[in-house]
Design a protein that fits this description.
With 343 residues, the chain is an alpha/beta fold. It has helices at residues 20-31, 43-52, 74-78, 93-100, 125-133, 149-153, 167-176, 190-213, 217-237, 242-245, 248-259, 264-273, 278-284, 290-305, 310-320, 328-332; strands at 12-16, 35-39, 68-71, 83-86, 109-112, 140-144, 158-163, 182-187. The protein starts with 11 loop residues before the first strand and ends in an 11-residue tail after the last helix.
């Protein structure tokens, strides 16, 4: 077992998941004064993080803080944790939580770093956490925003929003997740914050597709703008506040994810636009592009509320191979042949 470095009076934090975002958020927390343990599924990765303070698989060239260590043994990582941050692929979160639910200390705050909805149930990640761990929603928080992992790991300044039904919980998590290069804001709109993070991934796939096809900035700006309308209509139908979708978890994350080559969803879309099949894209991706898995459940949820999402619907057709990627942009920017109000 690695030597745990604990500073007197500091927060003891566990992060489940040693991919690029889990490791980066562990760095954020350690640089904010917490003692951080990261669970890595592979023992060799845990050793590298603990001994070399590197994660060369996911964050090449980044030096990790001294206050951060890793283990592949869940009991070691979770022992004494006051906060547990969960950063695993959204489609495997339930099975991972079933493994750890007896190991998480009582009264621990659990924070979702994930941006997806569960395929079979359509549940948001905080809902899965609440159901599997059987804990009060006031002990659950979600973090979201324009958070491209490698940029943050390089300590380029950015911000995020932490949301919980309890402002006290949101504030406590935000304090832990604040340091000189990363600032966390707070709100109590968990629905809007989570759906913002989910839905922007789908629009980013669309942007990647048209980028891969070779369309220019006018097309992309139109899709981003109309995509934000789809995101807001959907989230509000499920109880979100519209202003949340205009904030960091909505518009902010949308801009970052659509415009950056570091975005996994943008990259996946670009490969689709270049003519690769869905299976080829999945095979080429080193990490999960959550948008690909969320398209179908989001469309089912939209149908249940009568929300029209033409952009997301046509992304689904490209994924299914029933629409040529070159045909996607003209349809995306016009919902019908009849002129209609913009909002």
């Amino acid at each position: 077992m690695p030597i745990r470095i604990v500073s007197p009076g500091s927060r003891r934090v566990a992060v489940l998941g040693a991919g690029s975002w889990g490791t980066t958020f562990g760095k954020i927390l350690a640089d904010g004064g917490s003692d951080v343990a990261i669970w890595a599924r592979r023992p060799e990765l845990a050793r590298e993080i603990s001994e070399s303070k590197r994660n060369s698989d996911y964050l090449p060239g980044i030096n990790l803080p001294r206050r951060l260590w890793s283990s592949s043994l869940l009991p070691d990582v979770l022992e004494g944790a006051e906060y547990v941050f969960v950063s695993v692929p959204s489609q495997s979160v339930r099975e991972n939580l079933l493994i750890v639910r007896e190991l998480i200390p009582k009264d621990t705050i659990v924070v979702s770093l994930m941006k997806g909805v569960e395929k079979g149930t359509g549940m948001r990640m905080s809902e899965v956490i609440r159901e599997v761990l059987d804990i009060d929603e006031d002990r659950i928080a979600v973090a979201s925003g324009p958070n491209l992992a490698l940029e943050i790991a390089k300590e380029q300044p950015t911000a995020a929003v932490v949301s919980s039904t309890s402002m006290e919980t949101a504030t406590a998590v935000a304090v832990a997740a604040t340091n000189p290069y990363f600032r966390s804001y707070v709100n109590t709109d968990v629905i809007g914050t989570e759906f913002g993070g989910v839905l922007k991934n789908l629009i980013a796939v669309a942007i990647g597709i048209v980028d891969g096809v070779g369309y220019g900035e006018n097309t992309k700006a139109s899709i981003i703008t109309r995509g934000l309308v789809e995101m807001t209509d959907f989230a509000v139908a499920y109880g979100a506040r519209p202003e949340t979708l205009s904030g960091l978890a909505g518009l902010g994350d949308l801009i970052a994810t659509c415009e950056s080559s570091l975005s996994r969803n943008n990259t996946a879309g670009r490969l689709l636009g270049q003519g690769y099949s869905f299976s080829d894209v999945v095979a080429q991706m080193n990490q999960t592009a959550e948008g690909l898995a969320s398209v179908a459940p989001v469309l089912r949820l939209a149908e249940a509320k009568g929300v029209d999402m033409p952009i997301v619907a046509q992304v689904a057709q490209v994924l299914a191979g029933t629409m040529n990627p070159r045909d996607i942009a003209p349809h995306l920017t016009t919902d019908s042949d009849e002129p209609r109000p913009e909002s």
